[in-house]
Structures are given as structure tokens and as C-alpha cells.
Amino acid sequence: MRYSKERRKQHISRVRRLLVMRPDASILEIRDLLQRQVRSLKLDKDYINKLVNKIRKEKAKRMDRYTLSVKLAEFEDKLKEADLHLWTIANSSMSSNSEAITALREIRKNNSEMLDRMFLAGFFEKRPSSMHKKTLEDLIMEDDANNSDD
Description:
The protein is mainly α. The chain has 2 domains: 5-59; 65-149. Helices cover 79% and strands 0% of the residues. It contains 5 helices and no strands. The protein has helices at residues 5-21, 27-36, 45-91, 97-120, 130-149. The longest helix has 47 residues, at 45-91. The protein is rod-shaped and about 80 Å long. Mean pLDDT is 84; it is low at 130-134.
């Protein structure tokens, strides 16, 4: 039997609720539970299996995204910590010009690396190529100009 999108969403919602209460329930148990509810719902076991698989895939994707976000945040924190140290080197009067330039290049490289990781993780639809690198270079130059005015 074919169901409308809205009806399928309702079915998924009801099956999801049952899976929350009984995550280890079999397809036949879910079918029986659906039939015994106040608003009885009689669905084919194959259709229920299809819904359960869809729900589990959605959950797995959410967990993957969450894990990926946590790892990216940890990586970003490490890069920002390194950048703070590099900015100290770049702005220090004790640093030679070559040390300051090397520090600024490392900052740019860190920002580029973070954008690449975000691209690979699917945060962007298009590759952040030369447009973003140019923007990063401009930001570094602007920040350097602002810091030298102090």
C-alpha cells in the first residue's frame, strides 16, 4: 500500500516512539505494539522494517555528525591555541622579520587547514579554494596592519 509523505512521517514518528521505549524490539513486536495502541495501526512487517531501517540510518548519521563536530571542534581549539602563540611571535619586538613572517605563514596555513577539514566534513558545498585563501591572506594583512598601529 502506498502512503502519502505526511502519513509516512506519522508512521515513522510512532515507530520511533516505540524504539525509544524498547530499542531492542523486533519488527513483529513493533507491529504488535502498534496494533495494541489506543489508536491502533496495522502495518505490514516489511513496511515496518523499512521504517526501522530508515530511523536507524538517521540516528547513525546524527551520531556521525556529532562525533565529527566534536573532533573538528577539538582540532579547531588546538589550532587557535597555536595561533595565539604564533601571533605573540609575529607581534613581538624581539622576533626577527623572518620569524614574524614564518609565524604569519603558519597562521595562514592553520586557517587553510581548518577550512579544508571543514570542506572534507561537508560544511561547504563548494571547495573553498583561492577565494577563501585570498580572503584569509587579506585578513592576516589587515590584522597585521591593525596590530602594528598599536
